[in-house]
Amino acid sequence: MSRFLVNVARATAYPAVLGTAVLSGHFLIRAGVDTTLAVAGINAVAALVIFGLQRLLPFEDAWRKWRADLQVDLLHTVLSSGAVPALCKAILWGVSFQAAQIISGWIGSTLWPTGWDMLPQLGLALIVGELGHYWGHRWMHTSKVGWALHAVHHSSERLYVLSTARSHPLNVFTIYLLSTTPLLLLGAKGEVLALFSLVNGVNGFLQHANVDMRVRGLHWIFATPDLHRFHHSTDEREGNSNFGGNLIIWDVIFGTRYLPTERRGPANVGLADSSMIAGYLRHLGVPFLWRRLVSPRS
């Protein structure tokens, strides 16, 4: 590949993948395709595209090698980050819908601007949902209880497309609850919530991808890969920053956005001062058996 094409690919990969995913989801949902099927299908295609980009435009050569972590991350992808949100949806949506109906009855109208076009509604959903995500994520980094739930996600010692899925189910549940419930209570409809879920999935793949992407000014609006790499730094001063999941605007407002100009990434990623025993079942036990499964790094 010529240098010109490489530079074009680096500059366009992030907006092209995310933008194409959103527009494809919007089109399919408007065409009547089942929202769950549309979101799952686009996420799968996006993951495959990003896998290809990792081969063509690696950010870190050492992260390209296939390792034993692939198996455990596949299990997290299917179970922790796949089945848990589906369960959350089954539990929360009905209850929240009824609560939204009650709230709408009190005030005489829905709080959500259902008359807007779908994409502006998605933008509002990202802003509102991100506020709950931001404070929940920040709490996980500043609380012993929260960190016990969240540490599994930071145990990956390389970043690649499936690193996004490595999370304890209770971590997934907590973030889902804090980011999605406000949207349900405000009266956001299923189509908007499906696009919101789609952005969560595809942007998560991009954030953790081992792809050399140049995002330019987008990192003042979106939680882009260059920002998120520093969030995974073993240096706690760097890791306690960039808490946004999809947008970085709440980090900007609350002063936790971090992106040094002299470096393109952290020296190392992973847990700062601990070593976690690998394995999916062991990861499930981490919040309850911390001393047994997590040891200080010598």
Structure description:
With 298 residues, this protein is an all-alpha fold. It has one domain. The protein is built from 12 helices and 2 strands; from the N terminus they run H-H-H-H-H-H-H-H-H-H-E-H-H-E. The chain has helices spanning 3-30, 35-56, 69-107, 118-142, 144-154, 169-186, 190-208, 225-231, 236-239, 249-254, 280-285, 290-293; strands spanning 274-276, 294-296. A two-stranded antiparallel sheet has the order 1-2. Helix 2 runs parallel beside helix 7 (190-208). The longest helix is centred in the first third of the chain and has 39 residues, at 69-107. The termini are far apart. 39% of the residues are buried. The model has no long low-confidence stretch (mean pLDDT 90).
Largest sheet: 2 strands, antiparallel
Strand order of the largest sheet: 1-2
Summing up helix and strand content along with how strands pair, one would put the structural category as: mainly alpha
**Topology pattern, helix = H, strand = E:** HHHHHHHHHHEHHE
Alpha carbon gap, first and last residue: 43 Å
Mean pLDDT: 90
Kindly provide the radius of gyration, computed on alpha-carbon positions and rounded to a whole number of angstroms.
19 Å
Oligomer: single chain
Rough outline: globular
For the secondary structure, the number of strands is 2
Domain count: 1
What are the main properties of this structure?
298 residues; mainly alpha; two-stranded antiparallel ribbon; 12 helices
